[in-house]
Specification:
It is a single chain. This protein has four domains: 184 residues, no CATH class; 77 residues, no CATH class; 146 residues, no CATH class; 90 residues, no CATH class. It is built from 15 helices and 28 strands. Helices cover 34% and strands 25% of the residues. The N and C termini lie far apart (111 Å).
């Protein structure tokens, strides 16, 4: 009996030990499995979790363990290297959620985020790098509940490729997502999840965000000003604005109702990398971000086909030393997409690109014809130019069908227009179709006061070419305009030697009518047309018309300009004589 009981007890103990052994083995296997599998990953692969809390990507008790450590797979590291090679730099972005802070939880809560690198001792372990993002999580808290924010750090080629990354925080947090992204430097609080983007040197969440940015971008970057929604547009006389300084430059941005962001090309400023200091209406600014300018494409000749997207207020003072091509700099109007601007080095260069086109499109007695090279070299077309897509396509199609050899710069112009979709290749060889947009040009050879006038005049043509609603408004005002004042204006165009407009071209007449009204400030409209009425040659040709303009004090011109001015302000924030929202305020 005793032996039987003893044997049963041994059997029970054996079973218990066996169960405990298998449970221990299962725990050991599970523990090791979860140490290498995590809920987070990239490119279809999970990151390698290097501690237990990294498995679920959350820290619930920072007093015991406050950090998450991850290792990249070989494929993830290869993807990161490829991004750096393709973009010149890359960034790692993490989205982190902070549960609502407890009332008893007081004091500061340090935070760190950055890349990890393989240990130098060959042990296979990894350790945090020196460059990291730091901050105080308590400064991000909200009384309304949990807070989610994003943070990124850039990496540039030339150094060791990271082996992984880490997050450290001394209050509970959840790591929601991690991804490789384009390199950005700055901050953006316009959305539900604010982003703090640091350069390769790291830095503080509330420090100098632009520190180290010069290491990230191979060419002058875009400075993106992110703005809050405007509630009241003001008036064209009293328009709300934001100001800030960027190094030596002081910049003013006029506000409009449709303006989530403004792109400022740092190539047009005194310095590409400088300290940003907000000024007037700083509360309108929801973020500032440096990002890469688009890669530059060129033709075989070296001619640049990639425009800088910019507000026109910056191109007047754009440093010539920053031009990407000797003949011109090329821009695209930010507020009116697909309108290209050429700022040419001289009248001679501009003539070689555009004089033959000018005579083909609108010079009376030459329309539809292709003048000779000698003509181009010895005649001046215009000091400034503007052409719509349809006329550009017709010019190059006519040249191809007539086997007319265009000069090298005109051939470059064709390539630029094709690259930007202003004209398109037709199905028939050598034919071109209108695409989207228009071109405008002026020259550095013109004095500044004329460049400002040309900028306004030609830019209004760009809007006329591309906005059918604006054309309809112009036509409404044109058709109701004082007939004697209209005859005066068209006689002036016909009489002035260098213009030579074709009065039979109704589209041209409406377009020029609008531009002559809108090229100067409203306060100068009457003075401008009264001065034309005093022109001796015009008085000799049509004295009754010049007398009429003087007797009526050019009020018809002012009334029409005011109507166009109101439309332009409502739709673009522009005004007569001003086609920009951004301006340099430097003395």
């Amino acid at each position: 009996m005793y032996l039987s009981m003893r044997k049963k007890l041994v059997d029970v103990l054996f079973v218990l030990l066996t169960v405990l052994f298998f449970l221990g083995a299962a725990y050991f296997i599970a523990d090791n499995f979860f140490r290498t599998s995590t809920v987070l990953g990239l490119n279809g692969e999970s990151f390698v979790a290097l501690n237990r809390q990294s498995v679920k990507a959350r820290v619930t008790d920072p007093s015991k363990n406050s950090s998450l450590y991850y290792k990249f797979t070989e494929n993830q590291r290869a993807h990161l290297e490829n991004l750096m090679h393709r973009q010149g730099a890359a960034a790692l972005r993490a989205v982190i959620e902070l549960p609502q802070r407890k009332k008893s939880d007081v004091g500061t809560h340090p935070f760190e985020f950055g890349f990890s690198y393989a240990a130098k001792d060959g042990s296979g372990s990894i350790a945090p790098g020196r460059a990291m993002v730091t901050g105080d999580l308590s400064e991000l808290d909200s009384k309304d509940g949990a807070v989610t924010f994003a943070v990124s750090i850039c990496i540039v080629p030339g150094g060791e490729v990271p082996s992984g990354f880490f997050v450290h925080g001394t209050r509970p947090y959840v790591l929601r997502s991690v991804q490789f992204t384009e390199p950005l430097v700055g901050w953006d609080k316009s959305g539900d999840v604010p982003l703090y983007a640091l350069g390769p040197d790291g830095g503080g969440l509330h420090g100098d965000y632009l520190m180290g940015a010069e290491k990230v971008f191979g060419s002058p970057p875009e400075l993106v000003l992110i703005l809050e929604q405007l509630e009241e547009p003001g008036t064209w006389r009293n328009q709300p604005r934001v100001t800030f300084s960027y190094g030596k430059d002081t910049i003013a941005v006029r506000r409009t109702m449709r303006q989530p962001e403004v792109r400022i090309q740092t190539a047009g400023l005194s310095a590409s990398y400088a300290k940003f200091v907000p000024g007037e209406n700083a509360s309108h600014i929801r973020g500032i971000m440096l990002r890469r300018s688009p890669p530059v494409s060129t033709l075989e000749s070296g001619a640049v086909v990639t425009p800088y997207v910019t507000d026109l207020g910056l191109i007047m003072t754009w440093p010539r030393k920053n031009w990407r091509y000797k003949d011109y700099e090329l821009y695209e109007w930010e507020e009116v997409p697909h309108v290209l601007f050429f700022d040419f080095a001289s009248y001679k260069v501009q003539n070689q690109y555009l004089t033959r086109l000018a005579y083909f499109v609108e010079k009376a007695g030459y329309k539809g014809t292709l003048v000779s090279d000698d003509f181009v070299e010895n005649r001046h077309g215009y000091n400034a130019h503007d052409y719509k897509a349809g006329d550009l396509a017709a010019f190059f199609t006519t040249a191809a069908r007539q086997n007319f050899r265009l000069n090298a710069r005109e051939q470059d112009l064709c390539g630029i227009l094709l690259a930007n979709g202003v004209i398109l290749r037709g199905e028939e060889s050598g034919t071109y179709l209108p695409g989207e947009g228009a071109i405008v040009s002026f020259s550095r050879e013109s004095p500044d006061y004329l460049r400002w006038e040309f900028l306004a005049h030609e830019s209004w043509h760009g809007i006329f070419f591309t906005n059918p609603e604006f054309r309809a408004e112009v036509s409404r005002i044109y058709d109701a305009f004082d007939s004697k004042c209209m005859e005066f204006l068209q006689t002036y165009w016909e009489t002035y030697p260098s213009l030579g407009y074709d009065r039979r071209d109704d589209y041209l007449m409406r377009n020029e009518f609008m531009a002559y009204l809108m090229q100067q400030n409203i306060r100068s409209v009457q003075e401008y047309f009264l001065a034309k009425a005093g022109w001796q040659q015009l008085n000799a040709r049509c004295p009754d018309l010049t007398d009429y303009v003087r007797q009526t004090n050019a009020r018809a011109f002012l009334k029409a300009a005011e109507e166009l001015n109101d439309w332009a302000f409502r739709h673009y924030g522009f005004a007569a004589g001003r086609v920009s929202l951004v301006s340099l305020q430097n003395p």
